[in-house]
Amino acid sequence: MTLLAAAPVRRRWMVAYALAMIGVAAGWFGPIQILLPEQAARLAGDGGKEALLAVVTAWGAAASMVANPLWGMLSDRLGSRRPIFVAGTVVGVAGLLTLSAANTTPVMVTGWILVQVGLNGPLAALAALIGDRVPEQQRGTVGALFGVAQIVGVILGTAVAVAVGDETLGYIAVAVAVPALGATLLIINREGAVVRSSKTRLRWPGGQFVWAWVIRFLLNLVNALVLVYLLYFLSDQVQVTDAATWVLVLTVVNVLFAGICGFVGGMLSDRWERRKVFVVAGAILLAAGTTLMALAPTVPVVLVASALVGVGWGAYIAVDMAVITGVLPDAETRATMLGVANIAGTLPQLLAPVLAAPIVTGLGGYRTLYLVTAAFALVALILLPRLKTLR
Fold first, then answer.
1. What does the UniProt keyword field contain (predicted)?
2. Which of 15, 22, 198, 380 sits at a 20 to 30 Å CA gap from 148?
């Protein structure tokens, strides 16, 4: 399959691409931050809301992990990204509308599974478009947009949910925002001539892809472990009086630093034609931030640590997609393998609570948790030389 375009993508294409990714992220994280927790509290009450939310999000995460590579495989077989983008968006919107009317646990679970399965379609298409349309010298910039737009989508989805102030209307508003933000890209994106072969076979990826996958998994696991028990860490270890407010403060600090550093880093990586230095900086800063959280759990230090983690995460997402798309086995299975690569971002969300819970409750507490988290970042750093072709 040939979908490559040697010409640089224009600024308007980048804007449309970023808007589409913001829409997908808003559909994902708007419900997670506000709407799903409120709905779980309404259906299960204060005594069962945590358990219900855990069940709903676990089913959704499991479905997401399977859906992304399947959407990618279907995209490769069709030889086109547009049908996958549209079909997935339709399924995701149907899930959001199902959630807007959910008054029972089974309907809530079904709605969230539909959202996760559906929105993985446009996510898979957007990831593949970087390899299809973006030349190597622009992949840092566009790849950074892919990551930064997800951060903006978190803020937008949460802001919409808060501004509407009603659970049902919140889901409907997000359901409208997702396709509206993706429409421009569908209009202006032109897919090149596609040669689809029914004889295409998925080849086992080379070592470069495997090591890039492992590094992506480890750094996403670091990010997930930082966030998973942040509320409890602040209340129990740092002993702040209003932990929820401090979670918001730290999230804003983290997001601002990650977004700015991610976008600037992506442009610099293209200008310098270097990717590895940003992964090195990201891993070191993530390790430094989590080590500070482990050794000095005070408000000023945690604020500094949050900024370091934000800068580190931004440095990594600046080149994440450029690294992954640069080590794909071949063009004919691009979307499929990017779907496999995206598991490295989804799986840590499932594993983080499993790993963190026994450490926090019986194996040394939060100090041990964040030291182990720092160790994961350093392991990623140690593995980086395995990417021999990475500049």
1. Membrane, Transmembrane, Transmembrane helix
2. 380
Q: How far is CA 57 from the centre of its chain?
A: 15
Hey, CA dihedral for 94, 95, 100, 105, is it positive or negative? positive
Domain 11-188 homologous superfamily, CATH: MFS general substrate transporter like domains (1.20.1250.20)
pTM, two decimals, is 0.75
Under 8 Å between Cβ of 254 and 286: no
In this structure, which amino acid lies at residue 3? L
Superfamily of domain 207-386: MFS general substrate transporter like domains (1.20.1250.20)
Distance (Å, whole) CA 114 – CA 89: 10
| Cα 221 to Cα 164: distance, rounded to the nearest angstrom | 33
Please give the C-alpha separations between residue 131 and each of 84, 187, 227, 323, 324, in angstroms, as whole numbers.
16, 19, 30, 11, 9
Listed as ranges, residues in the chain with pLDDT below 70 are: 1-6, 33, 50, 191-206, 244, 329-331
What is 339-373 written as a DSSP string?
HHHHHHHHHHHHHHHHHHHHHHHHSSHHHHHHHHH
> 341-374 burial, b for 16+ CB within 10 Å, e for fewer?
bbbbbbbbbebbbebbeebbeeeeebeebbbbbb
Residue that the structure tokens 């270097």 belong to: 274
In this structure, which amino acid lies at residue 333? T
- What residue segments make up the domains of the chain, in order of their start? 11-188, 207-386
Question: pLDDT tens across 286-324, in order?
Answer: 999 999 999 998 999 999 999 999 999 999 988 888 888
H/E stretch holding 210 reads helix 207-228
Q: Which residue has 């983080």 as its token pair?
A: 352
Handedness of CA 151, 154, 155, 157 (dihedral sign): positive
Alpha-carbon gap, residue 240 to 235, rounded angstroms: 5
Report the C-alpha gap between 75 and 341 in whole angstroms: 15
Evaluate whether 11-188 and 207-386 have a shared fold: yes
CA distances (Å), origin 255, targets 154, 155, 307, 313 = 9, 9, 9, 9
